[in-house]
Write a structure and sequence with these properties.
The chain is mainly α and 531 residues long. It is built from 26 helices and no strands.
Length: 531
């Protein structure tokens, strides 16, 4: 046999070698790992929500499109892989990788669809805010806290805002305000009360000593104002106040630009000192602050829209009458906004649980406000109850200033409570001084209408009064006649009624209250027959 020629050897060496099954599987594993990294690089939900400019949205679109191209090419490569002659374990692993890759591609498609929905729909629309899973919700809350902190820091960098805030904190140091009522702190905040007091002192002294030094221009002092803003952002106020202040900053910035154009030097100098810079510098700083504020509001609106159904559930109750439900639902929605502002993911507690606590508190307050006969704020109800128990002579001798000092209230609130307490007559009260005798109409009065003239003082209503009394039982009719002096020369107190009937004063009041309720019910319907 003749030996092989060099030409044959060269052709065999040039033939490509067929990759083994192990090499194919290693290539597939590496390709799917690239797909995993592409999915991890997808924009987060918070980045999609706060992207407002066309440039930012175009960048996110390119990011998602790149991940989709990578996943498609890897899927095609995985489909071309020939593992028919490979071991069964390799074939099973290839199927697992194909299934995982399909899930990754579905994640990319869902991200692209949600991105398009959010950008195409109005801000805060519930149609594009599905119920968020726990992981996404925690992510949004963390980003919301970052944006809010940055917004507060930029807002308090403007001199007049910082001056207002430090003046309020100074009242805390002087004891006029309690720290929890002026400084918002989350439960996971590790600072003690002494630490917060130290930060308040540092911010107040920084404003009073360093920034008020003579010879320092507003523009040159801007780094110091930024430092003060960061100090004050660690002592944030209640969140509801910040939006109004930012709008005021924006309005003053607009006035500064107009003053610069009209060469009004006096107004321009005053606004520059309040805003901490010239018109061009202030305009750029206000634009940065408003950009952060818009991102903060966008995140807050999306979280609210995603949990709008939760607010409806928390405010719904079959026990509420139809005319009460709207007010209670509105209180539940406000509680949801309050929960969004104050929720801390670090508590390891579900947001729905925390929102439920807030909703229960506000809806209970709203129901108490609706059904209370006297609309008194919650913080003043204890003071009002103490005033209403006093005898009328002692109550009229009180001074509003003394009430304000004794109960730690403002002078306006003390005057309002004193006016209500002296003007209201309850069923359990004793008759007043001479000339102010009780009458049944005062107990039947509804919405300020004078039923006395309609029922007992007018001759043509005698028949209706007899019908109303006929609706009562004999005992109730007897109590009403004696209590209001109908057919008798004098009126009896509740204590005298109880002694005569052999019952307690409280039981006599209950019987009389039931009788008046029955009479009012029949009088409003214009019928004297018991139903």
């Amino acid at each position: 046999m003749s030996p092989r020629t060099p030409q044959h050897t060269t052709k065999r060496q040039q033939r490509p070698a067929t990759p083994s099954a192990a090499e194919v599987m290693e290539s597939h594993e590496a390709a799917v790992e690239i797909a995993r990294r592409s999915v991890k690089s997808l924009p987060a939900l918070s980045a999609i929500i706060i992207s407002r400019t066309p440039e930012a949205r175009a960048s996110l679109r390119c990011q998602v499109a790149s991940a989709e191209r990578w996943a498609s090419s890897i899927a095609a490569e995985l489909a071309r892989g020939d593992l028919k002659k490979a071991p069964r374990s390799a074939q099973l692993r290839c199927r697992e990788l194909a299934g995982e890759l399909e899930g990754l591609m579905e994640t990319i498609r869902s991200c692209s669809e949600r991105m398009q929905q959010i950008w195409a729909a109005p801000s805060g629309s519930p149609d594009v805010a599905p119920r968020l899973p726990k992981q996404e919700l925690c992510e949004l809350f963390n980003v919301l806290a970052e944006r809010r902190h940055e917004f507060w820091a930029r807002l308090h960098s403007f001199p007049f805002v910082a001056a207002r805030r430090t003046a309020e904190l100074k009242r805390c140091l002087e004891g006029e305000l309690k720290i929890p009522s002026a400084v918002f702190r989350k439960p996971t905040d590790a600072r003690s009360g002494q630490d917060i007091v130290g930060e308040i002192r540092a911010a107040v002294s920084f404003l009073e000593e360093k920034l008020q030094a003579p010879g320092v221009s507003s523009s040159g002092a801007w780094p110091a104002w930024q430092r003060l803003g960061r100090l004050l952002s660690s002592l944030p106020p209640l969140p509801e106040e910040a939006i109004e202040l930012s709008s005021e900053v924006q309005e003053r910035g607009r006035c500064l630009i107009e003053a610069s154009r009209s060469h009004d030097d006096g107004l321009r100098a005053g606004l520059e000192s309040e805003l901490g810079g010239t018109a061009s510098e202030t305009s750029a700083r206000i634009g940065e602050m408003l950009a952060v504020r818009d991102e903060y509001i966008a995140l807050k609106s999306y979280i609210y829209a995603a949990n709008a159904a939760l607010g409806f559930v928390l405010g719904s109750s079959k026990r509420d009458a139809w005319h009460v439900r709207d007010d209670v639902l509105q209180a539940a929605r406000l509680a949801l906004l309050k929960a969004i502002e104050r929720f801390d993911p670090g508590l390891k507690r579900a947001f729905s649980t925390y929102a439920g606590y807030c909703a229960e508190q506000l809806t209970t307050e709203e129901r108490n406000r609706i059904f209370s006969s006297v609309r008194v704020p919650l913080y003043a109800r204890a003071s009002y109850a103490a005033l209403i128990r006093l005898p009328e002579e002692e109550l009229r001798a009180l001074d509003a200033a003394a009430i304000a000092e004794r109960h730690q209230l403002s002078l306006a609130t003390a005057r309002a409570l004193l006016r209500m307490a002296t003007g209201i007559k309850r069923i359990g009260d004793v008759p007043g001084p001479s000339g102010t005798a009780l009458n049944l109409a005062a107990q039947l009065r509804d919405r300020g209408e004078s039923e006395a003239q309609q029922i007992f003082e007018s001759a043509e209503n005698r028949e209706l009064a007899d019908k109303l009394l006929a609706c009562l039982s004999e005992r109730e009719r007897h109590f009403v006649r004696l209590r209001f002096g109908i057919g008798h020369e004098t009126q009896m107190t509740l204590e005298e009624l109880g002694n005569q009937a052999g019952i307690t004063r409280e039981r006599a009041r209950q019987v009389l209250a039931g009788a008046l309720k029955t009479m009012r019910w029949h009088w409003e319907r214009g019928s004297g027959d018991r139903r």
